Structures are given as C-alpha cells and as structure tokens.
Amino acid sequence: MRVLAVDIGGSKIDILYHDGFKTLFKRFSWGLKHRDLSKSVFNNRFNKLMKHILAEYAFDQVVFSVAGLDSHEDWIFWRGKLDQHIKDRYILVHDVKAALYTATLGLDGIVVIIGTGCNVYGEYGDRAYYSGDWGWRYGDDFSGYRASRDFINIILRMYDGRRRKLKLYDTFLEYIGIEEGELIPYLYSLSVEDIAGLTGFMCRYYSSRIIKSIFNKLLEEAYNAILAVVRRIGSNLSVNYTGGLFRCAQFRQDFVNYLCNRGLEVGEYVKYPIVGGLLIPYIEAGYTREYLVSLKEDLISYIESMGEYI
After folding, report:
1. Cα 172 vs. chain centroid, distance in angstroms?
2. Mean pLDDT on 279-296
3. Are residues 261 and 153 in the same domain?
4. 145 shares a domain with 228
5. How far apart are CA 139 and CA 117, in angstroms?
6. Are 149 and 195 in contact (CB under 8 A)?
7. Which of 208, 145, 210, 148 is nearest to 9 (CA)?
8. Lowest-confidence range among 89-93, 136-140, 148-152, 186-190?
C-alpha cells in the first residue's frame, strides 16, 4: 500500500510517504490554517502544496491531518478544497486523531496537545470528545501562546511601572536583542506563532518564580481539560501527550508528575504525530498490531535520521 500523510498546522506542514519499500519525509516551514490567513494567501499556499503532492508522490491514499477542524463548516471547507484535486483518494482527520493513533495504534486513549495552540482529545469505542481548543482569540488556555502572552503581560507591567523591574526583565531584552525603547514596537510586530515561540526563553529560565507560576497555571488548565474529556467519555484512559512545549524537558517532567500525582495514567510522549496519520489506512485495513508496531518504529527511525525534529 502506498500511503502519504500530510500534517497541516498553523506554522508548518509535514509530509510523510511510505510504499512498503521506501520512506520519504519533507517539511514546509509555513502553515495552512484557513481561518488565520487571507483567501489569497491560503489559496496560493494550498495550490503550492497540492502541486508538490501530485508531482512528487505516487500514492493509493493520502491522509490529511488538519489543525482547526473545529466546526461543521471547517470540514465542508477542507473537503471542498481536496475534492477538486484528489477526490476518493483521501482521508481527512483532525490532527489530534493522528497524534492519538501514533500512541495507541487505533485503540482507545486520550492525547493532550500543547504547542502554539492546545487541545485534549479522547476516543473510547464510538465516543470521541475534545476540550480546551477554540483558538488563540477565545481559548488555548494551556497553550504555548497563552504562556508567552501571560509572560509578556508581566514584562509590560515592569515596563510601565505597575510592577518592579527584576533582572528577568533585562535578561529578556538581551535575549531578544533589543533596547528598552524598542520593546513596544517589537512586541506589536509579533504573530501568534512568534509569541508562542517565546516559550523558548521561558524554558531556558524555567526556574524563575514568575515563569514557573505561569507554567503551573498551564498545568492546572490542561488537567481540567483532561478531566472534562474523561467525564464525558466515562472512562479513565491512558493520557498521551504531544506538542512543541513538551520539548522543554522541565515542563514535560512537571506535566507527567502533575498527572501522576492526581491518579491519572500517563502514556506515550508523541514526538512525531504525523506517524499516526500514515498508519490510519493500515489500521482501517485491519493490519495486525505486530505489523503496526514494527512500521511505527521504522517510520520514527527514518524521521529521526532526517534530523528534522529537534
């Protein structure tokens, strides 16, 4: 079976191909969330992506795992776009489903996503629920964006005198490479993805009382979202986790400890959620679990050999 997986996020697109003999991986460093882009920008990027897919890969099925499939209209929009190019040869899923299947290989479970945005998704039999999404305007309460925004708010309070300036303030200015007088124009020039990226600074200075308190708030919000999914599913399942913020080792360990101390079973750290997308056709075709485990290991080894995920 020749399968192509395309993982579409707000800041990047990953492509993984496997035909039983060879595996290929490619990353585009731009995103494709239609609600965050103008119509012309989205169409240009979408057409570029489809041109690449159709020219470079011979596939029987392609799985699109897409961030932001939050409403019926979102699904209609994406199906309409994909039907124009590869009708009847694609599977469309929310990106959280691909992340979950990377860990569970199609079995019941829960996955927590904490990156630029955030989400909790769980499957149990024919029941599936989400919690904690809703995007950066109204939700993403335990996301990298929210953590960075809360930190920026503290920096601004130090800037305008509502809060005493600490050494952390000067350290932050040095980190981003600007003088104090440039701070406001710099902050207002940042995109949502740029703001979320400031968690790199926060991870470096994780031991700061201010930063630790922000991350503790994120852990509480994530836990509440997990409980919301557990209650609605009606079963306490293993909790897997994925997303850019978990690359921060201190936060990752605190997350695991937080859940374990509250009686939840912690599952797998999913570093490569695109793998689950590629496995979906094999799962639906009834391949054995032994085969799926072996293929998963081979795909992960290949991606790691590419050096794309750091």
Report:
1. 26
2. 95
3. yes
4. yes
5. 9
6. yes
7. 145
8. 136-140
213 shares a domain with 301: no
At 67, phi and psi to the nearest 5?
-75, 145
Tell the residue number behind the tokens 């600490």, with chain if given. 166
Residue 279, both tokens:
């496995």
Query: Residue 48: CA atoms inside 13 Å, Cβ hemisphere, count?
Result: 12
Q: What pLDDT does 46 receive? A: 93
Same domain as 275, residue 259: no
Q: What is the mean pLDDT of residues 93-116?
A: 94
In this structure, the answer to whether residues 291 and 234 fall within a common structural domain is no
User: Quick one: 124 and 27 in the same domain?
Assistant: no
pLDDT score for 136: 67
Distance in angstroms (rounded) separating the CA atoms of residues 282 and 163: 56
pLDDT tens digits for 22-64? 999 999 988 888 777 789 999 999 999 999 999 999 999 999 9
In percent, the amount of the chain with pLDDT more than 90 equals: 76
Residue among 206, 200, 205 at smallest CA distance from 170: 205
Give yes or no for residue 309 having a pLDDT over 70: no
Domains identified in the chain, total number: 2
For residue 39, give both structure tokens.
């119509």
Residue 72's CATH number: 3.30.420.40
Range of the domain at 13: 3-103+271-306
The 10s digit of each residue's pLDDT in 131-168 is 876 766 776 888 999 999 999 999 999 999 999 999 99
**Which tokens hold the place of 229?**
């999914």
CA distance 151 to 91: 39
Helix axes 289-306, 274-284, angle to 10 degrees: 150
